[in-house]
Amino acid sequence: MTLVEAMWARMCESTREDGSPIEPSDPFWDRLTQVAAQARTTPQVWFEQRQLYGDLADATLFAESFAKWLDLIWAQGAEAALQTYPSE
User: Fold this and answer.
1) pLDDT at residue 87 above 80?
2) Does residue 71 lie in a domain region?
3) How many domains does the chain divide into?
């Protein structure tokens, strides 16, 4: 689940890996985009969206796993994360 959330957070940053824009696809897109940009360097802010995640922000193991995946996606891309997933 943390890999899926990391992929979504990356998408919500509003650019693809090739730099092309991702069109808004959510009624809360502006807020999601803002938080996704912050999450790039501070992943825990993604789960501080308590209206979406409730108490999940307090789940340390979940947050650590999410941060690992998001860092990998930003550093090496989504394909690398997907290739790494089966071995995790």
Assistant:
1) no
2) yes
3) 1
